[in-house]
# Entry
Amino acid sequence: MIARLTTTDLWLLVIVLVLLVILVFLAAAEMALSRMTKPKAAAMADKGMRAGRALERLVEDEERWVNPLLLTVNICQTVQATLTGIVAGRAFGPAGVAIGVVLNVLVFFVLAEAVPKTYAVLYTERAAQVTARPTLALIRFPPLQVISRGLIGLTNVIVRGKGLEKGPFVSEQELLGIVEAAADDEVIEHEERQLIESIIEFGDTVAREVMVPRPDIVTVEHDASVTEALDVAIEHGYSRLPVLGPGEEDDIVGLAFTKDLMRAEREGGGGRSVHDFVRTVRFIPENKPVARLMREMQAEKFHLAIVADEYGAIAGLITLEDCLEELVGEIMDEYDVEGAEVQRLTDGDYLVDGGISIGDLNDLLELRLPDEDWDTLGGFIFGTLEHVPERGESVTRDGWRFTPVEMKGRRIVRVKVSVVAGAEPRDRDEAGASAPSRNGAAG
# Structure
């Protein structure tokens, strides 16, 4: 049974309605201002649009309005929830508290959250213009400024951390999500998105991931003649050749520059040993960040380094061009012979280079292969099988089958990638939790 409301109760309802209107305004302001960009606000101000100057001031410093606005929202929500509970308790008795909670969830969520924020998303500029001046006046209210700063100061005392005052904090994944959303909304071009993503990922890339592996390095023996070394350089189109040291150890003692060999042969020294023209070479660990290596190459003016593993053995070779390609993509000149790492076959399968990186393959074919333990597709197959693949053996994961079709010794050169008939790729969580099995064709 509903009790009769008193005059006090009616006034309390009026206050609740006023608070509802304020919350609608604040929700629209929060969403509109957070979506407004600095260039857009500056353009609106330059055109003399209504509230353009106020909007420009707000967008220039987000921290200036975020905390006071959120504090006001919290105060209004707390007061209206308390008043609604009081009125509902008087009207409906013991069940009034539950009724008040339900009304708050339904009415205030829909009217004071969903509706204004949806409107602000659809009509950002209009909502920003309407709310800019009142919001600017609100955040200039001295008591609100004092309370807001005091609460933030208390937060910094409770939660201490290095660089806490520098916020806000955005993770790489969140930043990549922002870039993807901007590309989907056509705010940035597809090529710009790729470049931004490459720059973000560049900081996490190490030399091992981009180096030319040891089996692919073209070298010359230390006792080869200048003419022989030049023949090798011209055949492969290289300006620098690693020179192997004496003895049976597979060790690199330096570099032979093609320009030095050409000068020597022109001067009649084609029969001299290439060892006479060896220059020093830089050795780096395989886990050296590529970003740091590229800065060192620029500062110290060297274009090539030899990558060594933790035991000192030669793991590969990396050039300045390899570093740049991580940012801008493959760099080909008129003499390079381009070999596609991924070829689409007539039956719908793919023929893939075993040395392709897991990340590149995931991007090209929208796969979800793990890249924590392996850098290349060949490494993934080798590591999953835990032995050198035999003829007809394959690995199956997430509805895809990976079958080595060309081997060079223990190295996987080419892999056939095909969809398993009747299999549906699992979602990311399931894929991450599942482990492929092995028995000829692993599944």
Observations:
- Residues 161 and 370 are 33 Å apart (CA to CA).
- The chain has four domains: 7-163, 172-202, 209-328, 342-433.
